[in-house]
Specification:
Blueprint (H helix, E strand, L loop, with lengths): L6 H16 L3 H39 L4 H50 L2 H5 L3 H8 L1 H7 L5 H21 L1 H48 L1 H6 L3 H54 L4 H42 L12 E2 L4 E11 L2 E11 L4 E6 L5 H8 L7 E6 L4 E4 L10 H6 L6 H10 L25 H13 L5 E5 L7 H14 L4 E5 L3 H4 L4 E5 L4 E5 L1 H7 L1 H15 L5
Parallel strand pairs: 1-5, 4-8, 4-9, 6-7, 7-8
Antiparallel strand pairs: 2-3, 2-5, 9-10
């Protein structure tokens, strides 16, 4: 929101907006403006040609009772020629204005996406996905909306200047009366913009809130339905939508009044000009051709003047969208935690690390741990004790609050418990834009035990739907795992990645990783005893401390909390509920 800026403030904002948008593709915009200038000159010229035809061809035919074939063909030729040139101006103006508008939209979208790409994951966690989508879509479209009418509006201004001279030179009184309407119409435009811009600001902001809420609701549709919260969610979205509706209705109400005023003022003026012009013709001060040219020129200007209003009516919405994009672009780029790694060819280690979400919620302090090259480490602990935050810090996804990480220079791959898949093919989701051969692709899929891909309709080229909706949870996890291992990473970190797999498939996947990625250091958050036995070493996360890495046997001997956890894993299979 911008409060209530002064007229000079609005003018500065508008000129800054136009200058910023035009700067993206000035050449295309200049060509469009040239076409608009040709259109303006030809439009005014057509009124002058009409005066010549009426006075020198039509009136002379009645006065002298003679018919000049040469003059008739000349008049027809000039009309056709001027119309063709004017049409060419329209084509150039519209086509290049459209190109400038949508290429600018593409450039703005690229800048928005660049911000998304360069911001690290912790920045995205603090943002609403729906709001970010609005910035890259709705806000960009709103920002460039003002560009399409700008060339036409500029041609109208040029026509006004030329026509004002022509109208006043034809008849001073009528000319002054006609040209006096121009500042009135422009004043109506300015008044309209002053009244409506705050409503477009509100509507654009609320539209971003609505998009975020809809996206959130869509993402959590399973939870909403499971808890029977459909009515509550519908009411929540309805409240937000009503705020968007109220702002838009108010803006439309003002626009309706503005449109009515734009119709009334020139039509009333036109009637006065016809009446006044008739008296001037009767007195001999004007010829019929001059009056017809006068009225025709004024009529030609009335509709284009509305295009200035259209441009100004789009200005508040474009300003609101562009301001939201600028706010995003001016957001400081948060340092990527991986840029702070101390690189080493083989070692992965933490030194005096403090791990948590912020300085007010520190999970662990002064953690020091080293992972042997080519080892398999299991991360074990109670739910909510900080295992995921730890491995995310280790992978450079969540920043350390203090301390440092020494990590290999080579590829570090991380696989989340809840994998994200794109609505494209299996191949695209595994390769992620990199060039891999079919042998490499199937090698990675085989490690992930993703044999089910053979049974898909088009194999690796099967479209799996948005977020992999066509696959089960275990299948999605295996595709995400194949995406990580295809790079043959130096470090592979798994955040409970096999939680959706049955125990037998899980063991096959883990054994395959150990056998086919012997050069990789594997760190896996574990929630099943089957993984503990395969691990070379284990880190145990208690509520307030981290133990290890060490062996499973040593932890059983030395740590009572670890023994209790292992016993808890065994109880479901050894005892039955006797209640």
């Amino acid at each position: 929101m911008h409060g209530h800026p002064t007229s000079s403030g609005r003018f500065r904002r508008a000129t800054t907006l136009i200058r910023s948008l035009v700067a993206y593709h000035p050449g295309l915009f200049a060509i469009s403006m040239s076409g608009a200038a040709v259109f303006a000159v030809c439009t005014v010229g057509s009124s002058w040609l009409l005066r010549w035809i009426i006075d020198e061809v039509i009136i002379r035919r009645f006065d002298t009772d003679t018919f000049s074939i040469s003059q008739t063909f000349t008049a027809v030729g000039l009309l056709i020629g001027l119309s063709l040139i004017r049409a060419c101006g329209v084509i150039v103006r519209r086509s290049f204005a459209g190109r400038a508008q949508w290429r600018t939209a593409q450039s703005l979208t690229d800048e928005v996406v660049d911000v998304f790409v360069h911001q690290p994951p912790q920045w995205h966690r603090r943002q609403s996905t729906g709001d970010l989508l609005t910035r890259a879509g709705v806000d960009v479209e709103a920002s460039v909306a003002v560009m399409a009418p700008l060339p036409y509006a500029s041609s109208v201004i040029l026509m006004m200047l030329i026509a004002a001279v022509g109208l006043i030179s034809t008849d001073i009184a009528l000319g002054l009366a006609a040209t006096a309407v121009f500042p009135i119409l422009i004043g109506l435009n300015v008044l309209y913009q002053r009244r409506v811009d705050k409503w477009f600001d509100i509507a654009q902001g609320e539209l971003g809130v609505l998009s975020a809420a809809v996206h959130e609701s869509f993402e959590g549709v399973t939870v909403v339905k499971a808890f029977g919260a459909e009515n509550r969610e519908t009411e929540r979205l309805a409240v937000i939508a009503s705020r968007v509706q109220s702002a838009r209705i108010e803006a439309i109400r003002l626009r309706s009044l503005f449109e009515a005023a734009l119709d009334f003022v020139p039509n009333l003026t036109n009637i006065c000009l016809v009446v006044g012009g008739a008296f001037q013709v009767r007195s001999g001060d004007l010829s019929v051709g001059e009056l017809a040219s006068f009225i025709y020129m004024f009529t030609l200007l009335v509709f284009p003047l509305r295009l200035i209003g259209y441009a100004l009516s789009e200005m508040p919405r474009s300003q609101a969208g562009f301001d939201r994009i600028q706010n995003l672009r001016q957001s400081p780029i948060i340092n990527n935690p991986r840029t702070q790694f101390v690189h080493d060819n083989d070692v992965l280690a933490l030194y005096s690390a403090s791990i948590g979400y912020d300085t007010d919620s520190v999970l662990f302090r002064d953690v020091t741990a080293s992972f042997s090259p080519q080892s398999f480490t299991a991360i074990v602990g109670y739910t909510g004790c900080g295992k995921s935050t730890f491995v995310q810090s280790l992978a450079g996804i969540t920043p350390l609050l203090a301390g440092s990480i020494k990590a290999p220079r080579q590829h570090i791959s991380f696989v989340f418990q809840e994998p994200f898949l794109f609505g494209t093919s299996v191949r695209d989701n595994v390769c992620m834009g990199h060039e891999f051969s079919d042998d490499d692709l199937w090698w990675a899929l085989n490690i992930a035990e993703a044999d089910f891909v053979h049974d898909l309709p088009q194999g690796v080229d099967t479209i799996i739907g948005e977020r992999g909706v066509g696959l089960s949870g275990g299948q999605r996890q295996r595709i995400a795992l194949a995406r990580a291992v295809i790079h043959r990473p130096k470090v592979l970190i798994l955040d409970d990645t096999t939680s959706a797999l049955d125990p037998n498939t899980e063991i096959k996947v883990l054994r395959s990783i150990k056998m086919k990625l012997p050069e990789s250091t594997v760190i896996a958050v574990a929630s099943r005893p089957s993984l503990f036995g395969m691990a070379d070493q284990i880190m145990f996360f208690d509520q307030s401390a981290i133990y290890g890495p060490t062996t499973h046997i040593e932890l059983l001997i030395q740590n009572e909390a670890y023994r209790s956890l292992m016993q808890a894993y065994e109880k479901p299979s050894d005892t039955e509920d006797k209640s």
